[in-house]
Amino acid sequence: MNRTKTVNKFLSIIMFSLLVSCFSCKKTTNQELRDQELSLRTGYIEKYHRNEIPVYRGVYVIPDKNQPKDQVKDAIVDKDVVRVYYEGYLLEQTKDGVNIKKERFDGNFDYKTGKEKYDPYTVTVVDQELHQSARTTEISGWHVALTHMHIGERAEVIIPSSQAYSIKGNGSIGPYQTLVFFMEVKEKASSSSEEPIVE
Questions:
Q1: Considering only 26-30, 34-38, 126-130, 147-151, which range has the smallest mean pLDDT?
Q2: pLDDT of amino acid 149
Q3: Does Isomerase show up as a keyword for this record (predicted)?
Q4: Any idea what DSSP says for residue 20?
Q5: What is the pTM of this model?
Q6: 34 within 8 A of 58, measured Cβ to Cβ
Q7: Taking Cα atoms as reference points, which of 138, 144, 169, 172 lies closest to residue 157?
Q8: What residues contact residue 106 under an 8 Å CB cut-off, 6+ apart?
């Protein structure tokens, strides 16, 4: 009987140790992914956008400096319904430093050539500074970016995972990945009178 108790106690200690080590590994893995994301994002910003500062919650909106000023119209505000062309990319470490991956993960036009591939995406803008707990169809980083843009404007938008898919990821986007979008706000469709859904 004493031997059985000793064996059971020993097995309990081993099981507890295994559980603790599994949880520790998971935390380490998530921390490593967060550290890798920060390293890639910092490297990319340092390489291409050294003098830029984030507009809100780590989101960068870098206007296209080659765009004629007369194409940029009114500022976008909460509840505006806008139509957007975009391309989305992930970051990767290359021999030349941090760059965007060659293959985009999503998009409806070719930013470099300006050729439209699909209809613009329609978004009802929710100002994240006014409605921090609002539930939206799009990632919150899109709304942060759009409220810092103008109708007709083209910009590069850098969104940290905290304003995108975070630990969950989404399809080809893994957990803790910064997203880089090239966006053009084609037009304002209307304004919405509906209040955002708050959780």
A1: 26-30
A2: 96
A3: yes
A4: H
A5: 0.79
A6: no
A7: 144
A8: 86, 87, 88
